[in-house]
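TA notes, week 10

Several of you asked for a full example with nothing omitted. So below is the full record: structure tokens for the whole chain, then the designed sequence directly under it. When grading your own attempts, check the secondary structure regions first.
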């Protein structure tokens, strides 16, 4: 079975695992998912991630981050651009998420980066998701 929107599946698996208070979640790997996981780690939304090679597609295992009261570090994760409705922005219209408390993950000609990094590099692109 082919998956129509693997990025939405990635975000939904993280959202569901946090709601169920899992320690980690396994997601089928792709280069895009690896890069998105790296950004979530750099921004402090997850503890760590590893790529598990299984001879096929591989898995990305993400350890979720919670505070001392067991509240997840990611309070909201929203898919913006979908296969049926792409959302592109230029450098003058880059999104701010929760007044820069959250991040917008974008795919640009310079790779998968946050909106803040896109502003520093003076580049626009497709907005994949918002995380806060």
């Amino acid at each position: 079975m082919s998956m129509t929107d693997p990025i939405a599946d990635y975000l939904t698996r993280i959202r569901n695992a946090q709601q169920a208070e899992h320690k980690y979640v396994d997601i089928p790997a792709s280069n895009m998912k690896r890069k998105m996981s790296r950004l979530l780690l750099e921004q402090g939304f997850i503890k760590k991630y590893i790529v598990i090679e299984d001879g096929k597609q591989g898995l990305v295992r993400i350890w979720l981050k919670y505070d001392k009261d067991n509240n997840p570090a990611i309070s909201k994760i929203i898919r913006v651009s979908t296969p049926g409705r792409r959302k592109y922005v230029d450098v003058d219209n880059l999104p701010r998420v929760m007044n820069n408390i959250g991040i917008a993950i974008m795919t640009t000609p310079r790779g998968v980066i946050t909106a803040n990094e896109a502003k520093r590099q003076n580049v626009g692109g497709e907005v994949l998701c918002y995380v806060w």
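The beta strands are 24-28, 46-52, 59-64, 77-79, 88-89, 103-108, 111-114, 125-131. Use that as a sanity check on your answer.
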